[in-house]
UniProtKB/TrEMBL annotation:
SUPFAM superfamilies: Cytochrome c. Residues 6-129 form the Cytochrome c domain. Keywords: Heme, Iron, Metal-binding. This is Cytochrome c domain-containing protein. GO terms for molecular function: electron transfer activity; heme binding; metal ion binding. It comes from the Bacteria.
Length: 253
């Protein structure tokens, strides 16, 4: 659970996009959220050469960054970011921003993040809270649609700060979420929805490659169209998709 301030939403979008991390992590489709689901831990995370047991990872592993790996295999339990940890979270020292920057560039071999991107990621990490009584629910279409909205809000914030890299990554985050939705709309009866998702993602790609000055209005139009058209159709067909718990369980059998 986290607040809905624009900076937090922007950070939440970036947290879930694999291309924030570079090299092997991005190729494997890993994002911050793969290890820290909703900013928490991930008891099921298991990657050969990176984990020693489910829920552990070695982030200083040469798997992620050949140049920077410390040469030792020392996985630890993935921490829950809702809990106080080793890294001070206060805004006075900016230790969190420095840590996240180091993680992206040094450990994962990613591209240097901009100050606005770091501010957003740190704001999100600071906002992560545990749910009351540790409740846990399956992912619904609404969660993924709200993640798409986070991407729109994040892109707008980056555009306002004239941050091209941050805006492009926010759009990549939206496309990543559309891809995750498409994975749940399998089967011949849902071909139209899948095609719609692909077309929406392509339209975003074109917007992301355009001039930053035109990106804001183009995104606003995209969002209106998406909300009035495809998002409605997806909601209507949610019961026939793998967001339906019974269908999902059956497909995994
Ligand atoms: C491969 C799994 C993995 C990925 C991907 C990952 N982390 Fe982590 N994260 C860890 C592990 C393991 C630790 C504990 C490291 C330690 O204690 O030495 C950690 C520690 C942290 C901490 C410090 C928590 C504390 O103790 O205060 C923060 C903050 C954090 N991660 C944020 C992020 C962000 C932001 C990203 C994306 C840029 C990210 N993580 C990506 C596994 C991961």
């Amino acid at each position: 659970m986290a607040s809905d301030a624009p900076l937090v939403r922007s950070g939440r979008a970036l947290f879930a996009v694999p291309t924030l991390l570079g090299g092997q992590a991005a190729k494997a489709g890993l994002s911050c959220a793969s290890c820290h689901i909703n900013g928490r831990g991930n008891p099921h995370f298991l990657l050969a050469g990176v984990s020693v047991a489910p829920g552990t990872a070695d982030v200083t592993n040469s798997f992620f960054s050949a140049a920077r790996g410390n040469g030792r295999f020392d996985p630890v339990v993935i921490p829950d970011l809702a809990m106080p940890g080793k890294i001070a979270r206060g805004t006075d020292t900016r230790a969190l921003e420095a840590f996240v920057r180091n993680l992206i560039v040094e450990e994962f071999g990613g591209r240097e993040p901009t100050p606005a991107m770091l501010a957003a990621l740190a704001a999100y990490v600071r906002a992560v809270r545990a749910c009351p009584e540790g409740q846990s629910v399956g992912r619904r279409l609404a969660d993924q649609l709200s993640a798409v909205d986070d991407g729109v809000a994040g892109a707008q914030l980056m555009i306002d700060r004239a941050d091209l890299q941050g805006a492009q990554l926010s759009i990549a985050a939206m496309r990543h979420q559309l891809g995750l939705i498409a994975e749940r709309y399998t089967g011949p009866g849902l071909a139209r929805e899948r095609e719609g998702l692909l077309a929406a993602s392509r339209a975003l790609q074109t917007i992301g490659e355009g001039d930053l000055a035109r990106t804001g209005p183009a995104l606003a139009r995209w969002k209106d169209q998406f909300g009035a058209g495809l998002a409605k159709r997806l909601r209507g067909a949610e019961g026939r998709s793998l967001y339906d718990r019974k269908r999902l369980a059956k497909s995994l059998r």
